[in-house]
Amino acid sequence: MVERVGGQRRRFGRIGLLLLAIVILIPVVWTWFTLSWAYSEGERAGVLQKFSSKGWLCKTYEGELAQYVVGGVAPQIWHFSTRDHDLAKALSQAVGQQIRLHYTEHRGVPTNCFAETPYFAQSFQAMNPSDVPAIPAPAN
Question: What's the whole-number mean pLDDT along residues 100-110?
Fold first, then answer.
């Protein structure tokens, strides 16, 4: 009888450890998945209006890109993040400049410790007005 009780305890102990491992493993795998694979990627252009390091415990790099559609109309503000320290350093030097930003979108990241937005800047290019190709006026 004593061996039977000890065997049941061991079995319940193993089941408990297995459940604990699963409870820990699922969020870790989900976080890795959402940060490793991009849902989408693209480019945005505008004036880098703001770039800062934010957070109490988890410092993240956050920026704002002002996208001007037509002169005299308020710009659309697009928020983005980056996890790359070297890119963050370069972006902080480019505040106030017209830039073209390459980004990836990562949906479902479980916490704000990685970023406040789902858009992660990967690289950027400073744009000079002379670098932009002229678009000819439509023929009448």
Answer: 90
